[in-house]
Amino acid sequence: MRNTSDIETFLDLCHRVYEKDLVRGAGGNVSVRSGDRILISPTGRCLGVVDEDDVVQLGLDGTVIGAGRPSKEWRMHLSCYGREDVRAVVHVHSAYAVGVACLRQLDHDCSMPVYSPGYSVRVGKLPAVAYMRPGSSELAQAVATLIARRNSVLLANHGVVAVGASADQAFDIAEEIEENARLHFLLDGRGRPLDEQQQAALAGRY
Ligand SMILES: [Zn+2]
User: Fold this and answer.
1) What are the Cα distances from residue 164, in Å, to 15, 33, 105, 123, 151?
2) How far is the CA of 203 from the centre of ligand 1 (A)?
3) 161 C-alpha to ligand 1 centroid (Å)
């Protein structure tokens, strides 16, 4: 039996990610945990038009339950749910964040300076994983290793993964990352990021 409110939450997340321009075309994918299942977006379909009939359900072992083919990134999604508190996973190819992910000098420990208080609290030092083939087990494993202790990770030459204890939280993180990346390019090296002390003073304030 499918949980109607979880499906509504899932569809709302799909549509918001598209409407807020975090994905284009059939790019990106999202998932929501529903009991002992994962609701995940289908492969090759624009998130902006995903409807109830498109929802693909996975068991926690990755088995497809019922109809449909999941996003090719299903392993990456599943690996994030290894963390018990994760209820939603958002993977987007938002333009500015992908721009940062393509920089020659990408710092894999902290991929962007921290410009705003909101970004500092929700994201902070955003780590990056090296480029790996989308959909591969290697990528899923590398993401899981970082997601074990972070709510977000940048994928070199690819995109963003954000997780949350709710769909809203995962979405907010993905949006904060895109906004900070946009500022990063707007500032073009002229920015003054928040320093370590300013960031530390924000901990727990939001
Ligand atoms: Zn992708």
Assistant:
1) 17, 11, 29, 11, 7
2) 31
3) 9
Q: Tell me the CA–centroid distance for residue 7 and ligand 1, in Å.
A: 22
Catalytic residue numbers read 73
What pLDDT sits at residue 205? 67
Provide the residue range defining the domain that includes 158.
4-202
Which tens digit of pLDDT belongs to each residue from 142-191? Answer: 999 999 999 999 999 999 999 999 999 999 999 999 999 999 999 999 99
Structure confidence by residue, pLDDT tens digits, 102-118: 999 999 999 999 999 99
- The CA-atom distances, in angstroms, between 196 and each of 9, 35, 96, 193 are 36, 39, 24, 9
What are the strands of the beta sheet with 152-155, ordered from one edge?
A: 64-65, 56-59, 37-40, 29-34, 88-92, 159-164, 152-155, 128-129
Could you tell me the sign of the dihedral formed by the alpha carbons of 145, 146, 152, 156, in that order?
negative
**pTM listed for this prediction:** 0.96
Q: What share of the chain is helix, strand, coil (3-state, %, to 5)?
A: 40, 15, 45
- Distance in angstroms (rounded) separating the CA atoms of residues 129 and 101: 9
CATH number at residue 39: 3.40.225.10
Cα-to-centroid distance, 116 and ligand 1 (Å): 26
